[in-house]
Amino acid sequence: MKLFLNGFVFQLRLARRSPDTFQVCATAPLLTVIFLAINKYTGAGDLTSFAVAAPTLMSLWMLALSTAGSALTEDRDLGTLEGQIAAPAPMELTFLGRMCSVVVVGLVAFAESWLVAGLLFGRWLPVPHPFVLTGCLLATAVATAGTAGLLAPLFVLTPSARTVQNTLSFPFYLLGGVLVPASSLPDWVQPASRAIFLSWCADLLRDSLAAPPVHLPALRLLAVLALGAVGYGTGMVLLHRVIMRVRRAGTLSQT
């Protein structure tokens, strides 16, 4: 727990000075304005919940990708990554704490989107299921941090983590049902979509902002957490193997 908290506090301090954090906080309101403006002038039904949910999930995933890539890349450039790997303390717990820190910061995007919808468009979105909403946001944060851990081995091996980040942004938004519900995707894509935790998060987040009762919220929250745990577990196993390989070869600074 101490290692987790050390990573959490350390990354939280870095996030206050990170351009990526400010970029995410500035992007979420702008995306909300764009989505609601399109909704208003196309005469479609009220899609406020979509306009609030989409920027929130996009901001979380964007910040997680950015921080996961920059954290290990900066550590390698500064020459501190070798010391972390050589230390007896497990690097996996510290990394998870760092990732959880930034995604908690990313939850500010939900408040920003909700306020923009109300202040600029007069669409004060009610919260008929506050407990489900809170559980969904927390589970999404944990699953985002865990899934980003799956990418850690790629960021260690890839000279430019930014390439991986750009590749895994918008495909995840689409397959994850962030922009449109996963049920609207072609039938042959939907099984792959359900394997992405964002699709469960997006559906549950929109349902928690709608008036009808939420169907099986506990089971859906469990699915989000399970997918995040699978991603984190797989990522840490791969990261351990990568670290052992580069440690034996002595090529960590060259990867």
Written overview of the protein:
This protein is mainly α and 255 residues long. The chain has one domain (2-254). It has 13 helices and no strands. The longest helix has 33 residues, at 217-249. 43% of the residues are buried.
Average residue-wise pLDDT: 82
Q: Could you describe the largest sheet, including whether it forms a barrel?
A: none
Number of strands: 0
The count of helical stretches stands at 13
SS class: mainly alpha
Spell out the helices and strands N to C: HHHHHHHHHHHHH
Number of discrete domains: 1
Distance between the termini: 30 Å
What is the molecular shape?
globular
Helicity range: over 70%
Q: How big a fraction of the residues is strand? A: under 5%
Q: Would you identify the regions where 5 or more consecutive residues have pLDDT less than 50?
A: none
Subunit organisation of the chains: single chain
Radius of gyration: 19 Å
Q: How would you sum up this structure in a few lines?
A:
The chain crosses the membrane at residues 21-38, 50-72, 93-111, 131-156, 168-185, 218-239. The chain is built from 13 helices and no strands. It has helices at 2-15, 19-42, 48-78, 81-86, 91-106, 108-121, 130-149, 152-157, 161-167, 170-175, 190-194, 197-208, 217-249.
Please name the defining characteristics of this protein.
255 residues; mainly alpha; 13 helices
